[in-house]
From TrEMBL:
It comes from the Eukaryota. It is found in: Cytoplasm, Cytoskeleton, Spindle pole. It comes from Macaca nemestrina. The keyword Protein biosynthesis does not apply. This is Regulator of microtubule dynamics protein 1. Interacts with microtubules.
Length: 314
């Protein structure tokens, strides 16, 4: 159906139904006035032709307003439909492992005000930064770029779990360029956003997995970093391998085999807890995980090396 035809369906069926001009205060039919009175620009009583033209103009104005409303509503619907189409393309490229194509698609909409687009753009920027062929200079630019997109996504929608999750991830990445003091200070903020993401969506296995990584990282913090943290903060961030293990298992319960790194970290955490039998079980699962991405291949290699390492010791 043509746009004109669609608009016509929304126009008033009765052309004469347009409301006439309202009477100004003090002129509601007083008999003491002469035969020419003005009703907001329309001369009546003494000039019937002018009055008819006024009614016609009023009706046309009404139709124009109705048409404007229809066009505005159509534009909003069209914009929403376009965003949905872009998101579908983006998710398809992400699932297909087309990292660079996804980034190229989404950067066309980097000025968007849509949180759904922005957090995906943060993720895409970070994924390109993680590619082995990305130079160190480009990686740094992309890491800070990703943080800006994640920050904007959070500003646009503070109730979106993915915005909290990717803001925390990107803030963690930036810490690699800002020194140990900034990294430890940011750790509190990162934890808060991961916890908020889990609260908003308890079924998102990735957010739970990332909270596990946070715990694992601070459980294995080197002694010299721990000393710095104690000097800088009254209560430095800390955690245990048991807590990390709890989050990794919880993520696996929510979505079994969702991520090769969760399997790897289950194995590594059991190694830290000196449970070689369960460590071998999870490392074998990580080694046999189908490699869809470059990261999956790296995880397969690391899992195989760990299995070889402690089997030789036995």
């Amino acid at each position: 159906m043509s746009l004109a035809a669609r608009l016509w369906r929304f126009l008033p069926l009765r052309r004469g139904a347009a409301p006439g001009p309202r009477l100004p205060a003090g002129t509601s039919g007083s008999r003491g006035h002469c035969g020419r009175c003005r009703f907001r620009g329309f001369e009546v009583m003494g000039n019937p032709g002018t009055f008819k033209r006024g009614l016609l103009l009023s009706a046309l104005s009404y139709w124009g307003f109705e048409t404007y409303q229809v066009i505005s509503q159509a534009a909003v619907v069209h914009a929403a439909a376009k965003v949905e189409e872009i998101l579908e393309q983006a998710d398809y490229l992400y699932e297909s492992g087309e990292t660079e194509k996804l980034y190229q698609l989404l950067t066309q909409y980097k000025e968007s005000e849509d949180a759904e687009l922005l957090w995906r753009l943060a993720r895409a920027s970070r994924d390109v930064a993680q590619l082995s062929r990305t130079s160190e200079e480009e990686k740094k630019l992309l890491v800070y770029e990703a943080l800006e997109y994640a920050k904007r996504a959070l500003q646009k929608n503070e109730a979106h779990f993915a915005a909290h999750k990717w803001y925390a991830i990107c803030l963690s990445d930036v810490g690699d360029y800002e020194g140990i003091k900034a990294k430890i200070a940011n750790a509190y903020i990162i934890k808060e956003h991961f916890e908020k993401a889990i609260e908003l969506n308890p079924k998102d296995a990735t957010s739970i997995h990332l909270m596990g990584i946070w715990c694992y990282t601070f459980a294995e913090m080197p002694w010299y970093q721990r000393r710095i943290a104690e000097m800088l903060f009254a209560t430095p961030p800390s955690s245990t391998y048991e807590k990390a293990l709890g989050y990794f298992h919880r993520a696996e319960q929510v979505d079994p085999n969702f991520y090769s790194k969760n399997l790897l970290l289950l194995g590594k955490t059991y190694l830290k807890l000196h449970n070689k039998k369960l460590a071998a079980f999870w490392l074998m699962k990580a080694k046999d995980y189908p490699a869809h991405t470059e990261e999956d291949k790296q995880i397969q290699t690391e899992a195989a090396q760990l299995l070889t390492s402690f089997s030789e010791k036995n």
